[in-house]
Amino acid sequence: MDLFDRTEQTRTGAGERAILVHMELPDAMGREDLDEFHHLVTSSGVVPAVELTGKRDRPDPALFIGSGKSEELAALVKEHEADVVLFNHALSPAQERNLERAVKCRVLDRTGLILDIFAQRARTHEGRLQVELAQLRHLSSRLVRGWTHLERQKGGIGLRGPGETQLETDRRLLRDRIRAIESRLDKVRKQRAQGRRARQRAETPLISLVGYTNAGKSTLFNAITTGDVYVADQLFATLDPTLRKVKIPGVGPAILADTVGFIRHLPHRLGQAFRATLEETVNASLLLHVTDCSAEERDANVEAVNEVLEEIKAEKIPVLHVYNKVDNLDQPPRLERDEHGQPWRVWISAHTGDGFDLLFDAIAERLAVGWVDCWLKLPPAAGRLRARLHEAGEVLEETTATDGSMLLRVTVNRVHFERLLREQGLKEEDLRVAAPTVAEGEAPSYNSERSPKAG
Question: What global pTM score does this model have?
Fold first, then answer.
């Protein structure tokens, strides 16, 4: 059995019976939500058999839950014929190894459980590489655990050498595999950087969805983009990042990115492994922080996401808070503004589509800085410029003057607008005009090519 076969032993499988362990600890970093733990367990596909709870002032250095609770846990494992023990806490390698010896069963801590869910959810080549990298880094400190084939090599005259040789081989294989994965992820990172530079040259804004896992980000993404991202009422339902080009009313073309959901006390090695994915968040023009407004832990979830944003150096990017699932509260959608009059929080329902008009207005207003919204009078020979304006922004209204010139009301990124004018050898002051007057009973003709509203 080689190293990569043994990593499969740490996995949970559908239908496996699990003993859940949750301890109440006074330390904030050791305190975890029990309901969220249950949701994690069911998301992994295992069947909870029984739950062991208790209180401690501090974790036991050797067994985390202490010797008495360990004996109780061993009895529960035997009674329920459990396949795995899941802890709602982070365990040290020594604690995990000692617990496995005590209960004679596989033991997974919170980090291992999250990694297992990530492994099940990853679909793309990049996502699988990132998950494997995080798993191998997690495994690197646990190579001394009591695997059965190594136990037979331990102790006894003449039997120590092979065990030590196997361990050294495992470490070498692990280091080589980590280096190979990091090299391949570097290539992915360069490819993403290329696409990002192309978007920056086109001045296309990037809007990134962030939020606590199961807050409804993918549902909102699908509603805005008419996409087909997998949606389910479970933690980390979607793992791989997805980017789609959309047209936001009042803004024009934009890129919307759906990223992996965050969770409280997200293991640091996960943030490192998913650096390529999270770069879409770090380089965004605007973050849509999606929150389940009906969740009891709503405020704590918002704080957890903010902590992750600080960790990945994205705390200074403009944020629009999107409070989703307002239909669960039987409240109407609404838009709230901060003390400066800027849109700050929008209450919507991604499931029903209620409040989307408020959301689009808020996004347009937050991205309005650096955008031009004006009427232009283009000569008949400027058909190419007209076509480029349709591509680069949104033509809100269009009509034709009696002399054959074209009157357009456009909203477009200023940097891109000025570049288009330079390419055509035109000046803004020569094209800008006041809004045309409309005779009573008449209306401006709206362009049939006007960008459709998203959603």
Answer: 0.64
